Amino acid sequence: MAHGLSEEHEELRRTVEEFARTEVAPVIGDYYDRGAFPYDIVAKMGRMGLFGLPFPEEHGGMGGDYFALCLALEELARADSSVAITLEAGVSLGAMPIFRFGTDEQRSTWLPRLCSGEALGAFGLTEPGGGSDASATRTTGRLEDGEWVLDGTKAFITNSGTDITALVTVTAVTGRRGDGRPEISAILVPAGTPGMSVGQHYSKVGWCASDTNELVFDGCRVPEANLVGERGRGYAQFLRILDEGRIAIAALSVGLAQGCVDESLRYAGEREAFGHPIGDYQAIQFTVADMEMRAHTARLAYYDAASRMLAGEPFKKQAAIAKLVASNAAMDNARDATQIFGGYGFMNESPVGRFYRDAKILEIGEGTSEIQRMLIARELGLPA
């Protein structure tokens, strides 16, 4: 198994690393403090082709693969997670369901704009009363005169309220099966459709420069042709999307974990205590060594999951392992980096202060750590 990246992947990694260091890092703190969405940064990412990385050129993409997306996410998250999650959600949750399950017409209509970064897509799965238990969907969709009529509420939806949001794919109960279980389908709702309203922007602990909102559907009507994939397969489709997305979130987590190492190394060489740089002290050296170990191990985990996915092999267990290991690494490294920085690490203006605030959601979003453990246990043959 080769331990290095291909020439194309390494070139992409270096390009995004440079962009994150020179275009994102110097300005993102201001966006973060204001809770403002970084439209200009997102536009530059679009011009670089980052939103089209894993999609074929025929759809306006770059003709790359999912691993390329993961490399970009890691490098962006070394500087800032708000920008990285905007890309991750726009690709994995916004465009990928259309690419995987949409009709030819849906692909030709939406993917070119989503791949260019001109527009963002979102996915409405989580509800106020259903997070990990996503099968407890309460939003309903009924067919009436050739249209889907949607009623319900979705919570914590990324990229759902920006000026460039183009669509939200929504899971809704569209009927009942013979055994009484809900039939859940995915339905595409263009932004601005009457009956869909964007709630107030959430005040979040972290990811303060990303867009996250509640969505309310009240008699929202869209054409019957806006069904994404097969009727009744919406939940199963999204489980596939989540398996892939967990690899992407793992990559983002590794980026945050590595960013903590980067900042701690810099600070350890600059900060003096008792007449010496703090990096001279073994306590700091061992802490940074543990941080690097976590980031390296988590990177290997998501590389492995991504390679299995691209080879067409089963990867559900490996994706869950990667997400669990990497989110733990991000949280642990953020805590250690904040400790190394002392009082400065408690300041929002410091990168590690933002890293600390951003890390916790990685143990929750796109499947909690508890859900990852359940998936791993199930893949090992333990009772579901």
From TrEMBL:
<feature type="domain" description="Acyl-CoA dehydrogenase/oxidase N-terminal">
    <location>
        <begin position="6"/>
        <end position="118"/>
    </location>
</feature>
<dbReference type="InterPro" id="IPR036250">
    <property type="entry name" value="AcylCo_DH-like_C"/>
</dbReference>
<dbReference type="Pfam" id="PF02770">
    <property type="entry name" value="Acyl-CoA_dh_M"/>
</dbReference>
<dbReference type="InterPro" id="IPR046373">
    <property type="entry name" value="Acyl-CoA_Oxase/DH_mid-dom_sf"/>
</dbReference>
<comment type="similarity">
    <text>Belongs to the acyl-CoA dehydrogenase family.</text>
</comment>
<dbReference type="InterPro" id="IPR009100">
    <property type="entry name" value="AcylCoA_DH/oxidase_NM_dom_sf"/>
</dbReference>
<protein>
    <submittedName>
        <fullName>Acyl-CoA dehydrogenase</fullName>
        <ecNumber>1.3.99.-</ecNumber>
    </submittedName>
</protein>
<feature type="domain" description="Acyl-CoA oxidase/dehydrogenase middle">
    <location>
        <begin position="122"/>
        <end position="220"/>
    </location>
</feature>
<feature type="domain" description="Acyl-CoA dehydrogenase/oxidase C-terminal">
    <location>
        <begin position="232"/>
        <end position="380"/>
    </location>
</feature>
<dbReference type="InterPro" id="IPR006089">
    <property type="entry name" value="Acyl-CoA_DH_CS"/>
</dbReference>
<keyword id="KW-0274">FAD</keyword>
<dbReference type="InterPro" id="IPR013786">
    <property type="entry name" value="AcylCoA_DH/ox_N"/>
</dbReference>
<dbReference type="InterPro" id="IPR037069">
    <property type="entry name" value="AcylCoA_DH/ox_N_sf"/>
</dbReference>
<dbReference type="GO" id="GO:0003995">
    <property type="term" value="F:acyl-CoA dehydrogenase activity"/>
</dbReference>
<keyword id="KW-0560">Oxidoreductase</keyword>
<dbReference type="InterPro" id="IPR009075">
    <property type="entry name" value="AcylCo_DH/oxidase_C"/>
</dbReference>
<dbReference type="GO" id="GO:0050660">
    <property type="term" value="F:flavin adenine dinucleotide binding"/>
</dbReference>
<dbReference type="Pfam" id="PF00441">
    <property type="entry name" value="Acyl-CoA_dh_1"/>
</dbReference>
<dbReference type="Pfam" id="PF02771">
    <property type="entry name" value="Acyl-CoA_dh_N"/>
</dbReference>
<keyword id="KW-0285">Flavoprotein</keyword>
<dbReference type="InterPro" id="IPR006091">
    <property type="entry name" value="Acyl-CoA_Oxase/DH_mid-dom"/>
</dbReference>
